[in-house]
Amino acid sequence: MARIRIVGAGRAGTALSRALRTVGHDVRGPLTRGVSLREATDGVDVVVVATPDRTIAEVAASITPSEDCVVLHLSGSLGLDVLAGHPRRAALHPLVPLPTAELGAKRLLSGVTFAIAGDQVAREMASSLGGTTVEVADEDRALYHAAASVAANHVVALMGQVERIAAEAGLPLEAFLDLARCAVDDVAVLGPKSALTGPAARGDWVTVEHHLASLPEAERAGYRAGVGLVVDLAATASLLPDVTVVEEQVEEQVDEAVNGAADEPVDERPEVRAPSVALTT
Question: Burial level of 169, CB count in 10 A (0-12/13-18/19+)?
Answer without folding.
Answer: exposed
